[in-house]
Amino acid sequence: MTNIHSDELGRVLRDFVERMPHAYAAVVSSTDGLHKQSFGLSHPDHESKLSAVTSSMFSLGKGADQFFNAGTGTTRQVIYELDGGLMFVTEAASHTLLSVLASHEANLGLIGYEMKMLGQQVGRFLATAPRTASAS
């Protein structure tokens, strides 16, 4: 499977953030917390930190799934409401998370829907191969 070029992914994230009212940053990372690409973060150190945080948060959401339908469902999206704004996290492709940061004025339904659409459009190019243990 071909990966989307980093510059192209950066442009896709920029376009997404610029057309979503009240969104100000977007990050693509692996489900195990490795940063792949981002747009709109105020400091380069935030890229890896936010990737690790979103990985943990999405994992917690998947853990909560056990309380619904005997744990047979899929975690579609996790939304966190924080004092500073909103954080949306969804699995946009295999082993790949898309996270969006927005202000409290953001339309939750619109951002959630558009994140799903973005995942469907470019998700196959974003897939991250799972890490495997190396032979010792």
Give, in order, the helices and strands: HEEHEEEH
Compute the separation of the termini in Å. 28 Å
Number of discrete domains? 1
The class by helix and strand makeup works out as: alpha+beta
CATH architecture: 2-Layer Sandwich
The top level CATH class name: Alpha Beta
- The CATH superfamily title: Dynein light chain 2a, cytoplasmic
Strand content: 25-35%
Strand order across the largest sheet: 2-1-5-4-3
Q: Radius of gyration, Cα only, in angstroms?
A: 15 Å
Quaternary: single chain
So what's the overall shape?
globular
| Topology, number of strands | 5
- List the total number of helices: 3
Q: For the residues shown, what is the average pLDDT?
A: 87
Tell me about the biggest sheet?
A: 5 strands, antiparallel
- The fold-level CATH name is Beta-Lactamase
Q: Outline of this structure?
A:
With 136 residues, the chain is an alpha+beta fold. It contains three helices and five strands. It has a five-stranded antiparallel β-sheet with strand order 2-1-5-4-3, sandwiched between helices.
